[in-house]
Amino acid sequence: MTAFFALTTSLLWGLADFGGGLLTRRTPALTVVVVSQAVAATVLGAIVVATGGWSEAGPRLWFAFAAGLVGPIALLSFYKALALGPMGVVSPLATLSVAVPVGVGLVLGERPGLLQAAGIAVAVTGVVLAGGPQLRGAPVQRRTILLTLIAALGFGTVFALITEASTTVTGLFLSLFVQRLTNVAVGGAALAVSLRRGGRAVPEGGFPWASLPALAFVGLADVAANGTYAVAAQHGPVTVAAVLASLYPVVTALAARGFLSERLRAIQTAGAGLALLGTLLLATG
Question: Can you give the pTM of this predicted structure?
């Protein structure tokens, strides 16, 4: 069950990142974040009301609130790093996010077996290579590296926090709703500050209403991924769930290949193969 839900997480996050990347080519990143998360919050609010999730309110919601504060900062740092530096550097570095939940799992006493440890090492190596690390070229700005590391730390922290936010399915819906409301509030505040400083909220042609279904997909896929990750981490070792969920860069690369006809570099193909091998070792371990 852990492997199934964790791999579902990587699929959803990979597709959400692919969609978000496409949308930010035409629409400011802050607007993409706010609108997509607002759609997700609306849907989650309806689910919470329908399932009576309010009865699950308790101290654990503070974990969801904290995840909602950290998430937008991580996402915006990631987008900014992609704008400043080459994806071949930013994408592999961002996969360091897996270190946070894996570290938490080890601190809590999880000790993967020999086969699982090998799977973790192989899968993480595969994910980094699938990002297409840039081995040559001009030096990367320190600011780009710093922003990427902030994003990785933020993504990993959200991984860890969302696992602690609930223990039941209805509680999970409520936790994700609180997280998304916080995301919208933080992103909206950042957007307001950007507008005051002369930034733009929409493209020159106005709000891209034709992109609304895609924005909704990005928001809903992202929130669904948070949910499946929480289930995976609660029903098995966090170390395994975190590594399998971190395979999303492979999905993004394959989506770019399938939808945009982007050619995978040899190092990316090798990375995808290693990631698959690591997944099999983890699943059988």
Answer: 0.79
pLDDT single digits (tens) 125-149 = 876 776 666 555 555 567 777 887 8
- Please tell me the distance from the alpha carbon of residue 212 to that of residue 82, in angstroms, as a whole number: 23
Q: Which two tokens stand for residue 209?
A: 């209403």
Render pLDDT for 65-97 as a digit per residue (tens, 0 to 9).
999 999 888 888 877 776 676 555 566 667 777
Return the number of other C-beta atoms located less than 10 Å from residue 202's C-beta.
Answer: 13
Q: How many other CB atoms are found less than 10 A from the CB of residue 197?
A: 7
Q: Where are the alpha helices (DSSP H) in 165-211?
A: 169-196
- Report the largest interatomic distance among the alpha carbons of the chain, rounded to a whole angstrom: 57
**CA 258, CA 251: separation in Å to the nearest integer?**
10
Q: Which of helix, strand or coil describes residue 2? A: helix
